[in-house]
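Sanity check. The docking grid for iron/sulfur cluster depends on where the pocket ends up, so I'm generating a full predicted complex first rather than guessing from homology. Inputs follow.
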Amino acid sequence: MVMEAFPLAEKYRNPVMILGDGLIGQMMEPVEFPEHLKTEPSNKDDWATSGMDTRKSNQRNLVKTLYLDPAELNAHNLKLKAKYEQMEREEMRFEKYNFGGDYKALIVSYGTMSRVCRTAIDRLKEDGLEVAMLRPQFLFPFPRPAVFDAARKESCQAVFSIEMSMGQMLEDVDRSIAGKRPVYWYGKCGGEVPTPEEVMDEVRKIVK
Amino acid sequence: MGKTFQKPQCLADTITHYCPGCTHGIAHRLVAEVIDELGIRGRTVGIAPVGCAVLMYNYFTFDFQEAAHGRAPAMATGIKRVRPDLMVFTYQGDGDLASIGMGEIVHAANRGEKFTTIFINNAVYGMTGGQMAPTTMPDQRTTTSPFGRKTVNTGMPIKIAEMLATLETPAYITRQTLTRPKYVKKAKKAIKQAFTYQMENRCFSLVELISTCPTNWGMTPLDALTWAEEKMLPYFPLGVFKTPEGD
Amino acid sequence: MTYKHFIDSDICKGCGICVDACPKNVLEISDKLNNKGYFPAFQARPEDCIFCAICCTMCPDVAIAISEIEEKKAAQK
Ligand SMILES: Cc1ncc(C[n+]2csc(CCOP(=O)(O)OP(=O)(O)O)c2C)c(N)n1
Ligand code: SF4
Ligand code: SF4
Ligand code: SF4
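Predicted complex below; grid placement will be based on this.
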């Protein structure tokens, strides 16, 4: 996924920020390197300051963001808006887990935490409680429609944002659900990882 | 004994936004003349700073990028490392280079990044209305030192050229000025030398130019030139402080 | 060889640096405004000009140019 950041940055000419949790950031587990990716933007001659000789052109390229004329700046912002909208159309990335049955609760979780949630979901299933999980892979564009649809399922009574943070994703989840279901947060900070049991207890407290 | 004189090809046919008599204009022309003479316009990339020169890309006719305040050396490092064949230069004021961007320039120089920096030292933040800069002279009045710069709590003006020259990494570091025709000619020579070292892939190069800001100094352009000579040059001596040959 | 000294009065900002720098005291500041609202410099005593280009060296706005007048025209004079 880290490697994917580069072609995306080229496609949109936009910085891509890679967010990891503490465990990923400190590489506490083995890392796998996939095939090397090579990316070349297709239209770089239109903008890159590669030197006019390289482009065999007498037209110079400028990379700048300062627009002093309000109309020009407005047009620039509209261009950026269109770009963000294209990202929302084309780049929503998420993974679904245990969506098969009539789940009673939906967990939204990312990173290392989502793996713990997976274990918790498997154990709850053994106990006869069906819980689904949606794991956003991109924070922007956030998979709002997918979270909304998943939460709206008739059997689903509550939504949990389970994080190794004080609720950084809670607002995104809340906003996606638009009041259709109650949203709860559970998490821990500072390097402590909630256990599957804690997650199970948290779900059981609300969903019977 | 006559001479012809024409606007360099590297300069666009535009009226600049600089105040009357501001030496930014002379510095621009010298850079343009040097790039013309070296025949490198087609492979030069300039980096504009934040400061009065923020719009400088409008006045040149080759590739340009605009950097965040003080970050031009980081941008130049990236471009030069990816494309060592390009001629890359930053053009930065004293607020940009010696204040918010101090860390950037020190480490770029110390890493020996092979780009060129033109450093405009006009002893104030020009664009934002004449606030005190790290290079403001003792007792100089600015909008943020209305009673004159007190060195007791703001220290002495920072001598960038001398400071960077103490780094062990080979570099070309010089200070010039633009106050008189003979100095302008020397300044041009220094800029040409700096770009030449870059063409030879030798070293980082920095040309500090003692400049004027008549508007924020509250002086006529001519008085400003005199003030720069009388007040700044004794403290900021002209000369070459370091060459890659080691002298 | 003959030269032509030309000040683009619409680019000039009337800073007076050239007036001060000229060794032959050729230049002065006009009392007519240009279209940007500045009083531009002009050659008050063109006959004294030695085309040394010192004014051009100092002009921050590259408002001054000196061009060679073609040999033929010069010869005809
Ligand atoms: C991050 C950031 N901080 C502050 C500013 C405001 N700012 C604009 S220009 C400037 C000072 C530039 O002064 P200097 O580099 O001396 O250039 P001069 O204007 O004198 O040519 C400042 C502080 C900014 N644009 N960005
Ligand atoms: S404010 Fe000062 S540095 Fe900026 S253009 Fe005017 S005279 Fe030049
Ligand atoms: S060319 Fe020389 S003599 Fe002629 S106006 Fe300019 S400075 Fe004066
Ligand atoms: S130096 Fe240039 S801008 Fe200044 S008065 Fe002379 S011609 Fe005009």
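Relevant for the grid: Chains A and C do not touch (no CB pair under 8 Å).
Also worth noting: The first helix of chain A runs from residue 5 to 12.
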